[in-house]
Amino acid sequence: MNRPVKRPTSPTRQRRMFQHRRRIPAGVLLRQIGAILLMVAAAVGIVIGLQRLPEQVDVVLLVSEAVADLIRGVQQLLEALLGLGAVVLIALMVLLATVLMLGAIWRLLRLISMMIRPADQGRR
Predict the structure, then answer these.
(1) pLDDT of residue 41
(2) Running DSSP on this structure, what letter comes out for residue 11?
(3) Rounded to an integer, what distance in angstroms lies between the CA atom of residue 123 and that of residue 109?
(4) What is the pTM of this model?
(5) How far is the C-alpha of 94 from the C-alpha of 116, rounded, in Å?
(6) Where are the alpha helices (DSSP H) in 2-58?
(7) Is 38 exposed, middle or buried (0-12, 13-18, 19+ CB in 10 A)?
(8) Max CA pair span of the chain
(9) How far is 9 from 124, CA to CA, in rounded Å?
(10) Opening angle at CA 30, ends 28 and 33, nearest 5
(11) Averaged in consecutive runs of 10 residues, what is the pLDDT profile of the chain (124 residues)?
(12) Do the beta carbons of residue 114 and residue 122 sit within 8 Å?
């Protein structure tokens, strides 16, 4: 029932518990360093560009114009929605008037037919 634990017979098959990890390949290392340098260079370029921006552009004027454009856009959107609502309301009123007119004509025709028919035929 109890089997003895097999131990490795050759000294080359040892557990790798205390051995050093594998070294990173040179290609991967160079690629990572290149990517890091490119990212740092791009970040430095963006920061320098942002520092020079206030000299070339008036940021306060730019922001105020953007806010004014946004307000004008919202105002135009609300005016367009109001106009669309007016068109829908007019169309609904035309539809209601048509339904009322057809209902009135139908009732008028029924009244005329009741008046033309003799009273005794209507009771049968």
Answers:
(1) 96
(2) T
(3) 19
(4) 0.46
(5) 33
(6) 26-56
(7) exposed
(8) 124
(9) 117
(10) 110
(11) 62 61 81 95 94 80 93 97 97 97 96 82 56
(12) yes
